[in-house]
Amino acid sequence: MNKFKTLKDHVYDYIADQILAGNLRPEEKINENVICAELSISRTPVREALIQLASEGILDNVPRKGFVVKSLSEKEASELYVIIGDLDGLAARLACPNLSEKDFKDMQFYIDSMALTIQSKNYEMYLVQQKTFHQVYIDKCGNSALIEELAKMKNKFLKKSYLDDPEGVISRTLTATNDEHREILKLFEEYKAEEVAKFLAEVHWASENAHFDLMSLNEK
């Protein structure tokens, strides 16, 4: 059951989405007036959302400057990936007995979609499809606190912009990652809850960590 969302929750989601979409960049100041105008709301829920985002390490509250988007170092990312891997594995284990044939078909659709985005080098869309793939089983875990915590931790990852990939390094990396998605789906279809949890924590998110490093290198 989805909890009732307050105005603050909607503002929180809006800002997080803007960061993930790359519309708000690291060290960029959050303009509260713009958010109030775009969402047609008062300053209070905006301030509440900003304070929450800062408490979760997504924003920094800088004296005499205000709230700015926090940069995430590779070390911080590596540490977060370990935690996210364990939590994602837990969500998968809890969700496994609840998954239906429709869920399996949905996950297969997103795997096929990711393959197409890799072929067309539409890596931005790959990230969207990848997030949706994982969300299929996360939403079926039956633990709203776990779902919320995973969303908060993933919000800390700013969208990475891919440069040209003339040597195909990014394409090969994402293809290997998508092969892991196929293994995740196979384990789900066999209802191997412990195995899929272990694979996500110890294999897949370790690969995602390397994926983050690759994207960071491509931005330098």
Q: How many helices?
A: 9
H-E string:
HHHEEHHHHHH
Q: What is the percent of helical residues?
A: 55-70%
Ranges where pLDDT stays below 50 over 5 or more residues in a row are 213-220
Number of extended strands:
2
Rounded average pLDDT: 86
The dominant shape is globular
Distance between the termini: 43 Å
Percent of residues in beta strands? under 5%
Query: Class by helix and strand content?
Result: mainly alpha
What does this molecule look like?
There is one protein chain. With 220 residues, the chain is mainly α. It is built from 9 helices and 2 strands. Strands 1-2 form a two-stranded antiparallel ribbon. A hairpin with a 3-residue loop joins strand 1 and strand 2 (66-69).
Topology:
Blueprint: H1 7-20, H2 32-39, H3 43-55, E1 59-62, E2 66-69, H4 74-95, H5 101-119, H6 123-138, H7 144-154, H8 169-189, H9 193-219
Helix pairs in contact: 1-3, 4-7, 4-9, 5-6, 5-8, 8-9
Describe, in short, the structure shown.
This protein has 220 residues and is mostly helical.
Keywords, separated by commas or semicolons:
mainly alpha; globular; two-stranded antiparallel sheet
